[in-house]
Structure formats: structure tokens, C-alpha cells
Amino acid sequence: MFSSSTLVYSLSLFLSISLFFFIFLLSSSNHNLISTADDLDDLSLFHRASVSSNNNYRRLISLSSSPPPPSKIAFLFLTNSDLTFLPLWESFFQGHRDLYNVYIHADPTTSSSSISPLLDSSINAKLIPAKRTARASPTLISAERRLLANAILDDPNNLYFALISQHCIPLHSFSYIHNHLFPSAAAAANSDQSFIEILSDEPFLEKRYIARGEDAMLPEIRYQDFRVGSQFFVLAKRHALMVIRERKLWRKFKLPCLDVESCYPEEHYFPTLLSLQDPKGCSHFTLTRVNWTGSVGGHPHTYGASEVSPQLIHSLRRSNSSLDYFFARKFSSESLQPLMEIADAVIFRD
């Protein structure tokens, strides 16, 4: 009897320890996953934004004889530190207060001293309720959807949504960008093309597709439907609404990655979703220029102060599409001063 009890106790202890280590390993390897509470909180936000948009659309229909309201661009900033290029963006926005809104998703670990200058600046930025984010995790998808939903809720006149990095700079004046997105008052109401990179022929696509497991994305996402693209986009409102209303693909993209080195959910979710639901409504190219020559650790080339020149700005604008690039990344903090020195004469002179 004693030996039997000892055996049962030892077996129970072994199973308990094994279960503990399994849970520990699972949680430590997937510490960036979205909690159920956070996911439900986001779903509630997305639902409110979707309902609000429907109500605003009905109200606009009833007031169709009135002059159209100004068409605005919502600039969505993702940041985990201070916004180094704030002075440059202040100059960019100056004089256009009725044509834009700025929304900031600052990682909760960001110090208040880094955010204060932004909130006190002339651009009147709005800090949205944020949750922690981490590179190469679905938290970045959540943050971007959160930015879209808050911008939709905040102002029904936000018709385009430009996702901007803390290391991004503008390559043109505000007027140039607004006029190209809304070429006329009549076109503004019908501006519905999104500018997002959508690629299907990248050499690393298969590794990224199976990063969660061989068949983890099935049946919702077949390999031939999987896409990759730049994290940064300019979405029309109808596509922003499509993103926050989507549920099926999100269940797959928030799964834990087994191959973390090949897992960049934010570069796949948006291109895959829009490619499946409205490929002809998207440009398939991004408006944010990034230099991947000499990239290090998955990060693009970072321009230093010595590289800043009028020639650099002109070269970064050029693209193979019908539009110039609007924005560029990645720039070092030391490059701010030389950028400010050529802002009026070069960057904002189109």
C-alpha cells in the first residue's frame, strides 16, 4: 500500500512538473500573443467604429444637398519612443488644420517625457488607448487595427488612413499629398483606391507561410492566396472598415509562430486580406520608400546626417508607379537638423 501511494504521488509530481515546464515554455516563446481580454476589448472597439460609420453614412445621405465636408487624411503613428522628427512634421502640417488628423499609438512602455512634446505640439495629436507591441508578433496588427478604428470613430471626414513609422519623413508638401489623394471635390467623395504593397512572388514567401506550422493557415488561407508587403500603407476608408470588420483571417494570423525568424504578421495580414477581398481596388504598391540595400537584422538602411541632401530627397521620391513616393524611412535622429535645413527649399517644394 505504501509503495503504491508513493508511485502515484511520484507520477503526479512528475506530471505536474512536466505540465509546469510545458506552460512555461509555451508562455515564454509566445509572450507577445494577444490575450483573450485584449482581443475582446479590441472587438468591442471595432464594432463601435463600424456602427458609427454606418450611422454617419446614413446621416450624410440625408444631408446630400448640403456642401460636402472637407476630406481629411488620418495620419496613424506607431511609436515606442519619442517622435524624433516632430519639428519636421509640424512644418509639414502647418496651415492645413482642417484637412488632417493625427493619431498616436504609443507603446505603454514609452515614457511620458517622450510623449509630452508631441501632445504639446501644434499638430494637435490624439493619443489613443494603446497596448504593448513587439516586433514580429500579431500585436502590431492589433495596434494598426486599433489606430484605424479610433480614427474612424473620431472623425467621419477621415477618408484616407496613412500608417506612419516614428522613423518616417514626408517627401512632399501636405498640399501635394492631399491633392493627389483627393484630386477634386467630386473625386474626393469617391476616392476609394488603397495604396498598399501586395506581392506574391517573393523568394521567402513559403517560409513565412509555414512559420506557424505546415498546415496552420488552412483552410482559410491557401498558400497561393498568401501575400507579403510593406507594413506601411495608405488605406481608403472602405478598406479600413473592411480591416476592422474582418474576423476569419485574424484567427490564423494571431497563432503563435514556431519559426520566429520568418514571422512578420503585420507584413502579411493586410496584403493577404485585401488581395482576397478586393485586389482590383488596391494599387499593389506602397507610397512609403524603404531602402533594403545593406539591411541589418531585418531593419532597412538608416540614413544618417551626412547622407541628407536635396539629391537624396529627389531620388527617394522617384518610383516605378504612377505616383511619387509620399514618405520615406528609415532616418536617424541625427538627420533631423540637415532635413530641417532643406525642408522649405526642397522637401516642401514640389
Automatic annotation (TrEMBL):
It comes from the Eukaryota. Keywords: Glycoprotein, Glycosyltransferase, Membrane, Transferase, Transmembrane, Transmembrane helix. Coiled coil: none annotated. Pfam families: Branch. The keyword Transferase applies. Its main location: membrane. The chain crosses the membrane at residues 6-26. InterPro entries: BC10-like (IPR044174), Glyco_trans_14 (IPR003406). It is found in: Membrane. It is a single-pass type II membrane protein. This is Uncharacterized protein LOC104711752. The lineage of its organism: Eukaryota, Viridiplantae, Streptophyta, Embryophyta, Tracheophyta. The gene is LOC104711752.
